[in-house]
Amino acid sequence: MLGLIKEKNKCFLWRFMIDKKYQGKGYGNMALTPVINYVKSLKVFYNIKTSIVSGENCAEGFYRNFGFQDAGEVIKEFRLENSDEIGMKYLF
Ligand SMILES: CC(C)(COP(=O)(O)OP(=O)(O)OC[C@H]1O[C@@H](n2cnc3c(N)ncnc32)[C@H](O)[C@@H]1OP(=O)(O)O)[C@@H](O)C(=O)NCCC(=O)NCCS
What we know:
The chain is α+β, with helices and mostly antiparallel strands.
């Protein structure tokens, strides 16, 4: 799911998941690449933000591998202060 708020220049990626049986086979990269290209093609947003929960087998390494970096501001922007979420963003 993508949350796109054009007036505020905010783009947030939600609930990006690959079924457990099919993880580690390249589908995550294959699916996220067109999502990023789509958002880029809109020529409205400067980045895509998301959040992850740290822990064993978490998605953090996947996003870092993809080029996402830490984005502390996400936590406040998306009102996640009372959660264990860590903010990340992909810059165009
Ligand atoms: C995280 C997730 C989306 C990745 O999708 P995937 O199909 O398993 O990942 P891919 O096979 O496309 O891997 C792409 C690259 O990321 C790396 N990677 C994948 N998962 C990783 C992880 N958990 N930690 C570190 N690196 C990871 C792969 O090694 C691969 O690297 P390479 O391109 O250098 O070979 C998927 O595993 C998933 O849905 N996990 C559980 C749910 C989850 O945490 N979702 C987050 C949102 S709630």
